[in-house]
């Protein structure tokens, strides 16, 4: 049994990983990193959904303080093509640092639940950070529970966001040039 700090991006993505880790006998605590989530109203909605879920299942959560959107964006600007790797690094680094201070046996991420995330990159960054910070990264492929987690979040009536979190992913989700051109010509 291990004490694991789980980077938790939102309530729906936490369902299956928390359940799985607990079934394996681990003690799990969540960590909500907010600096990459845009706009702020979206950040607050995700945090509220996570808080409600955590209260329902008795999951303790550590919440990052402040809202350092400008600092986050400064790390991404002119590196947009590699923005996800930078974002993974920022979130996992913050999680690993807290895991070390809190004397956790390891850390992981609900990013590993999503079929839209680059697992090889997440694993590589997590393992590298784990070695340099001194707390092991725990890799689990939680994607097998994708459908189960979606169903559970819908059954619970949870807020389910439609994009990863950053302003760029919001644009990717909603802006489609061919549709925008046809909308403006009508």
Explained architecture:
There is one protein chain. The protein is of the alpha/beta class. The chain has a single domain, classed as Rossmann fold (3-Layer(aba) Sandwich). It is 54% helix and 10% strand. It has 8 helices and 4 strands, in the order βαβαβααβαααα. Strands 3-2-1-4 form a 4-stranded parallel sheet, sandwiched between helices. Helix 2 links the parallel strand 2 and strand 3. Helix 1 runs parallel beside helix 2, helix 1 packs across helix 6 and helix 4 runs parallel beside helix 5. It is globular and about 55 Å long. The model has no long low-confidence stretch (mean pLDDT 94).
How many H/I helical runs? Answer: 8
Counted up, domains total 1
Q: What would you give as the CATH superfamily?
A: HUPs
Question: What is the CATH domain class?
Answer: Alpha Beta
